[in-house]
Amino acid sequence: MPTEVTKQRSLGSKRLEKDSWSDLLPKLSLLDAPQTDVLLIDAQNDVEAVAAWLQEYQDSSQTLKSYRREAERLLLWLASQNNQLRDMNRELLRQYEAFLEDPQPAEQWVGPSKPRYHAQWRPFRGGLSPASRRQSLIILQGLYSWLVEAGWVRHNPFVLMRDKARRLNNQTQTIERYLEGDLWAWFWQWLNTPTKLTSEREAYEQARRRFIVSFAYLLAPRISEMANARMDDFQEREGRWWWVVVGKGSKLARIPVPNDMLECLIEWRGALELQGLPSYHEPTPLIRALDKHRGISDNQLYRLLKSTFSEAADALEAQNGKLAYVSALRRATPHWLRHTAITHQAQSGVSLRYLSESARHSKLDTTSRYLHIEDNEWHQEQQRHRLKSAPKPPSKPL
Fold this sequence. Notes:
Layout: H1 21-24, H2 46-54, H3 61-80, H4 90-101, H5 106-109, H6 130-150, H7 164-167, H8 181-192, H9 200-219, H10 223-228, E1 234-237, E2 240-246, E3 252-256, H11 259-271, H12 298-318, H13 323-331, H14 334-347, H15 352-359, H16 364-368, H17 373-382
Helix pairs in contact: 2-3, 3-6, 9-11, 9-14, 12-13
């Protein structure tokens, strides 16, 4: 199985060398050739062509990670079918869609999370959900579009998909993957409910989990931004505290820190045996491993939050909570906390301008998807249309 080439935390800083892909995907042929006479990239085979595409995203570690994953899955599947990128047509694309839903044979494709160099590493944890399949196809559509422009392949099979605009549209009118107000209130109370702790480690883990969720909710970071955050990213200017973050696309941003976040930060630092708020020169990890010194990876952070949602779902189910809320917790991913944070800020009256700045969106249209005001007004207006009483019999026969 494939071997790890670059560490996850350095994906954004190290150039993805195309020479490394022969080790990453050993099954692939290295004797491919471009399909067109005009080649605009330095590539000798499919692996190098895809690596050249990925280099366009080397400054965005999370995007690079997800794009590489989907490209790798496609290349491995094509190799298993004795095909190359040039061979992809509408029928093969249809077969690949079905494969994403149910990767077979499972023993070859599906397995638990393992390091890339592990013998039991597999490209899938299981079949992809409809949303994940759509996201995969969106990424691969972009790959083929780029390869056509680069002169590596002659056609993009995705243009043949019926109703492509709808099927590959990843933008919904409003954000739906978030915790509603009542569910969030229960979830936060559950996180803060005192429990019987049997060890110092359990107390530390509980404090860490509480801080991670508060950080995610109050500042709406992406998971990679949380994993890479440092203590001195929190900085004081003229009596006001700001969180300085290098986000998506390597964009530097400065976000106002609410007082609740400062209180949570002081509490968390207490669990780390540190006093007060961070000093200006304290470039140490914000979220730490069990030794209270080392940082944790975004993958570890993802699993920690997923297990928290799972435990919360079990607890709510045991309390006979609403089935819809239990289901939401089971489906929730760490990114839901970012959606929840932005949505709740919008509902609390934060203006669209400042909401967009805090969310670090490049377009106001993206931020406006978090506004549910029109839905509320529409719903209220619709209440005018009622059956106030039983219908009266007509005075004349119809």
